[in-house]
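As a representative case, we now present a protein record of this kind.
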Amino acid sequence: MSEQNFYSPMEKTTNMDKLHNKPSNTPRWKTITAHTTVPLLAFAVLAVPITLVMFFGEISKYSGPHSQCGASSFSKESLLAPDVTFGNFTITEVRLIDLSWNLAAGRGLQASMAFFTYKSACAGLLRLAEGVPVSYRAFEAITISRVSFTAIAALARAVWSTRYWRAKFTFAFVLLSTIFIMILPTLFDIMTGYVQNSSELCELFADNSIVSTLRTNDSSTLEADRATSTCYVMRPVMNNAPVGRLLCVPDTGYRWGCSAIWLIINTCLMSFWAFGSYGIWVDAHRFSVLHRNGRKLGTWRAITDLAKAIEEDVGSSLSGYSNEELEKEVDAAPPVMYTVRREADEQSDTVVLGPK
């Protein structure tokens, strides 16, 4: 599929026709590795945590109406409660595990996702700016502000204002990715936690009064009905009245774990982010003329391009403007896109960011 007919009629442009769309200068082995590794990693993000929980986690099943020794999986109690737990730790050990998880998985994964989001977003922006006009605010939000609170408003405005479907999708995905990455440590902190070990006890009744307390697992005659939080001398049958009330009391040690519902939600969101970022990068890698010619977007490339474009729109005497005045001028300026020009004093074509 050629560069010209890949755009819709509204997006069609010939401003890149003067450049030779040569094959990518990226080594073939790197391209093959990226195309195979990224989808596998995205699948692993979803499959590995769920597999670990299913085979190595201890899932509590007891959630009676009067007391509980843990939240049952996929119930309202497990929305924030750790219902899949591991180990037997002291309070110091379990707190160190929880803090290490929040630091490594929360902050570490946030930094990694922000880096890859920036790379794919810059590639997608370059792909867009070759064919459709892009506002200064959107260009700056992706290339300079990166994944930050200041970029959210500009990206939301870009989604609302642009009339090109490809630009809407790209800006919307980058916006959602930015929000997701910003709150990722909080989501991971909500997902995990630790609980104190507990034991099930049966309070026996005699004339509606408690006469003794026995551990259900120490008695060969008592069985617990966890659905009603009651104890029976044998497995409950018709006309077999309960002999006591099932209670849960604290025990020694702590267990660390996560909420199964939040684990599935977070892994699904991360897989969606991984496949979306990969799709934007592949699209730019295949169809962006500048990307394939090695003129990729980054912070300094964007600063240089923006400076030239602003100087062309506002004027060369930029030193006399305050920051607020420049913001007003930039907001009033028309959107920009990449074009190929040849100035009178130049012998070759030049790629320039400027008004359409």
Remarks:
- The longest strand covers residues 192-206.
- Residues 35 and 295 are 21 Å apart (CA to CA).
- Residues 3-60+92-191+260-299 form one domain.
